[in-house]
Amino acid sequence: EELLPGLFGVDVGWDFHFEDGSDTPQLRQVTVQQVFISPSLVGVLEGATDPIFGVGAPGVWTLTFDPSNPEAVHQHIIFATDTLPTEANPLVFQFRLVNATAWDGTALTDSGVYTLEFVPEPASLLALGAGLVGLVGLRRRMEGRV
After folding, report:
1. Residue ranges in the chain assigned as alpha helix (H)
2. Which domains does the chain have, with CATH numbers?
3. I want to staple 31 with a disulfide (CB 3.0 to 4.6 A). Which of 22, 47, 62, 71 is the partner?
């Protein structure tokens, strides 16, 4: 999605899992730790101004469940770039979940590496292709008039 002219982004929501019928999540706290991020990609907490993910950014973000405000753990990271990804050259964010604590206080093992790969969605490619076909047709019509 184009956020501003020449700036593209995607909103990634984060939340804790609740078992059916439970009023407490499985986790009390977890830290998202950046392992790798494409050089032109940054991740900013919705409503904030400074990136938390990106080359030279802190690269860590902790989510903590607060029983007095259970909705507060639902957060959004806006991943933004000025470079459109392609299938051959996607934008990548790799992370681990570290220092997690279960609801009962048990310390949990750090996760393996997860990968978010941002590629153009087929609908965007179709719209882009339709626009390019229209431009080619317009150019051919204009050349025929000269």
Report:
1. 122-145
2. 2-119 (2.60.40)
3. 62
